[in-house]
UniProtKB/TrEMBL annotation:
One of its GO terms (cellular component) is cytosol. Pathway: One-carbon metabolism; tetrahydrofolate interconversion. One of its GO terms (biological process) is tetrahydrofolate interconversion. It catalyses: (6R)-5,10-methylene-5,6,7,8-tetrahydrofolate + NADP(+) = (6R)-5,10-methenyltetrahydrofolate + NADPH; (6R)-5,10-methenyltetrahydrofolate + H2O = (6R)-10-formyltetrahydrofolate + H(+). InterPro entries: Aminoacid_DH-like_N_sf, NAD(P)-bd_dom_sf, THF_DH/CycHdrlase, THF_DH/CycHdrlase_cat_dom, THF_DH/CycHdrlase_NAD-bd_dom. It comes from the Bacteria. This is Bifunctional protein FolD. NADP(+) binds at residues 173-175, 239. Gene3D superfamilies: Leucine Dehydrogenase, chain A, domain 1, NAD(P)-binding Rossmann-like Domain. The keyword NADP applies. Its EC number is 1.5.1.5, 3.5.4.9. The lineage of its organism: Bacteria, Bacillati, Actinomycetota, Actinomycetes, Pseudonocardiales. GO terms for molecular function: methenyltetrahydrofolate cyclohydrolase activity; methylenetetrahydrofolate dehydrogenase (NADP+) activity. It comes from Actinokineospora bangkokensis.
Length: 292
């Protein structure tokens, strides 16, 4: 990362995730091949309880990516998509020694809670860090798989040489999937962390205190130049579909680029790293280790 991250930049550096994702996939391919040669093919099960087109496209993309690196990935569609049926499927997969990693894909049907079901995932198979046990271990600094999107933010920052120790970090969003876990990871990297959200008074002013700003609010183009301090590094976790069908982030890039020191693109930033990390977590689970 250039020194412009500490001062005003005329155009933000693009913090792409493509090269990092390729590096992770290469490592996964090598490790998966060694496991397979020794008689254990890494396997991943994705439990799906929705017919949402975007979700189905995403999980199919994970399967294709897994095939390329030597990980077996299987989609388990639950019908009818009730809490009882989803729970039964998770229980079966948890007991199946041939399955090393399990993902309960969101969104879930109305009235079905991820928190209520994710406790059925053993921490050793919970490769997207969804369960209360995984979340607790992460908070305490114990071995755990971190949610892949939160970890992707951290690995992208490290890949681009962004120093976090002693820096002021603000996380916009408090979800259990991204906001809270990325805040924990930032704390473990010795950043001073503020979590802001929809009830935060004068949100732009709070966001402008950040030297590193992580945005995970789920609203297209929500963050503009008024939220960003000159030279700040901005990580855009958002994936929203624009009116023209294109993919856009939570950050209005055209507004923020003249102010920020660095900005992750959408697409091509956090997304490809997240998918690569899910595969790396699956291989780590097959090895009997955690990925942190």
């Amino acid at each position: 990362m250039s020194s412009r991250a500490c001062g005003r930049a005329s155009v933000a550096d693009t913090l792409s995730g493509k090269a990092l994702a390729a590096e992770i996939r290469a490592d996964v391919t090598e490790r998966a091949a060694k496991l397979t040669a020794a008689g254990t093919t890494p396997s991943l099960a994705i439990v799906v309880a929705t017919d949402d087109d975007g979700t189905l496209w995403y999980v199919r993309s994970i399967v294709k990516a897994a095939e390329k690196v030597g990980v077996t990935a299987t989609i388990h569609t639950v019908e009818p998509p009730t809490a009882e049926a989803i729970g039964a499927k998770l229980t079966d997969l948890a007991a199946d020694d041939s399955v090393h990693g399990v993902i309960l894909q969101t969104p879930l049907p109305e009235g079905v809670s991820l928190t209520d079901l994710s406790h059925l995932l053993p921490a050793a198979k919970d490769i997207d860090g969804a369960s209360p046990v995984s979340a607790g271990n992460l908070t305490l600094g114990l071995p755990a798989f971190a949610p892949a999107t939160a970890q992707a933010c951290m690995e992208l920052l490290a890949h681009h040489g962004v120093e976090l120790s002693g820096k002021r970090a603000v996380v916009l969003g408090r979800s259990a999937v991204v906001g809270k876990p990325v805040a924990q990871l930032l704390l473990q990297a010795n950043a001073t962390v503020t979590i802001a959200h929809s009830r935060t008074a004068d949100l732009p002013a709070v966001a402008r205190t950040a030297e590193v700003l992580v945005v995970a609010v789920g609203r297209a183009d929500f963050v503009t130049d008024e939220h960003v301090a000159p030279g700040a590094v901005v990580v855009d976790v958002g994936t929203n579909t624009a009116a023209d069908g294109s993919l856009v982030g939570d950050v209005a890039a055209a507004s923020v680029e003249p102010v920020a020191g660095g900005l992750t693109p959408v697409p091509g930033g956090v997304g490809p790293v997240t998918t690569a990390l899910l595969l790396r977590h699956a291989v780590s689970a097959a090895e009997g280790t955690f990925d942190r």
